[in-house]
Amino acid sequence: MHFNPYGGAAAQLAAALVNLEPGTSPETITEVLREHDYRPFRQVSPAEAAELLRWAGRLRPVFADADLDRRVGAVNALLAVTVSRPYISRHDGRAPHLHFAHERGPIVDRLRAYTASGLAHAICEDHTRLGVCDRPGCDVAYVDTSRNGRRRFCGVRCANRVYVAGHRSRTAAEGPSRL
């Protein structure tokens, strides 16, 4: 599925933030931002890193709860605390694109507006495309961009573990082979 480019990239970044471990370093957070083509003008500070990790905790329910009404309520609550003032920007030689907070504003404010708006776009496109891995013990959040929209796992490794465990369970229940 092709999401709105702004919503898709921002929703992917929201998932990446949700998947960070508590206490993740400012350097690692800055690298995650760069990997998702979010260009901070400087290194994220320790205080900003702590605030972004708290924000990630507020983003998690949007991925974890599949109920549309609760998802909409959660995203509306996120949007309500942002400094959202949409405008079109053309900074750094980039093509025109939407900004939901001033590009020179505090990075935490910009990321709150960016990720909340991105999740809003994703939900409006197809709320079932946001999820958390189905493998027991794995809580990795993802945005399903697959063609058929049937993603259940964060990646191939978790899918294989579930399928192999299911096969072994069925094989054990059938009893020993009579070869």
Automatic annotation (TrEMBL):
Residues 129-170 form the Zinc finger CGNR domain. InterPro entries: ABATE (IPR010852), ABATE_dom_sf (IPR023286), Znf_CGNR (IPR021005). SUPFAM superfamilies: Jann2411-like (SSF160904). It holds the Pfam family zf-CGNR. This is Zinc finger CGNR domain-containing protein. The lineage of its organism: Bacteria, Bacillati, Actinomycetota, Actinomycetes, Streptosporangiales.
